[in-house]
Amino acid sequence: MSTSPKRRRTGGPKQQQHQQQQEEGEEEGPLNRLPADVLSYVFGLCVARLEEVAPLARVSKLFNACVRRPSVLGSLGLEPHERLQRLFPNLNMFFPNKEDIAAASAELVATLQQVRLGCPAIRRIDFDSNDSNYHKIPYVRDEHVQLMASFRSLRSVSLAQCVSVTDIIPLQSLTLLTKLDLELCQSIPGSGFACLSSLISLQDLNVGATVINDEGLAGLSMLPAVEKLSMGSCRAVSGSGFACISSMTSLQELDLGCTSIDEEVLAGLAMSFPALTKLDLSGCKSISGAGFACLSSVTSLQELDVPHTYINDEAIAVLSRSLTALAKLNLSFCGSISVSGSACLSSLASLQELGIRQTVINDAGLSRALHIWW
Fold it and tell me: What are the domain boundaries of the chain?
């Protein structure tokens, strides 16, 4: 059988290069002649979604080089929920049907695969619905977490409200990760969070409203760089179980609202966090009124939330003398504070915002104007 002879390239070097591009299926066009920094600027102006960038990145090598630039990928992330809602409107329902969940799950697999081909250096993936009225994302599953783990350049991941995710072990490979949101991922086993201890670059971690337990938290306590830890409504951790986070000495913001932390552990933590600037103890009923006085050692505190607690006049008096940097204080629904006991709040020279909803406190005794919410 005879084969057709290979076409001979003719002309000068430029014409031969053009012929080679035609043979390889990469036709040189006006966009390919633009400088890379100009293309990068155009991408930033015209492309709002990473799903749109991924196919473009495969147009040519120059386009691909532009997409990999930090100036492009730094401002773009994969946020598929809104598009999937348009494709499958019933996902907005509290009880979407199984067919829509399966279809959305398959569509998400295809999207991740497409983005992996076009934009492997993506830095942010956000599966969160960003909808306060919608609390569950049932179509994100373990297979998506496995795919997502192949994006080794990821810095930020949100799986918040992804209630079908049960295995986060693949996230161990994302060694550059600095932010991880697992809020309301209630299908992950309590001890399953310990696997994240290898993410040594992690700075911002949210495991609020999950079933994390003492064993899982012990694993997380080995993370050396965490500056912000959110554990609100983690009811499976025992009161003494929180003691292990005292080793996280880089902490600047800590949310332990609606947990069973007790005042003995709180006192220990207060001595461990010299750089803590924000603390949320909302609804912590295991701490006595005077028990909050131990926070006087955290002199760097700028924001303190203690609504729905037993904090009393004694603790307020001690904190008012010590927390000179405090700019925001929320005492709403704190029925153990009297009018006379609140008078010492005037000594908080840096205080700018004060929450006193459903309390007997009024602004009559305060010596200066504050932003007060009732």
Answer: 24-76, 288-374
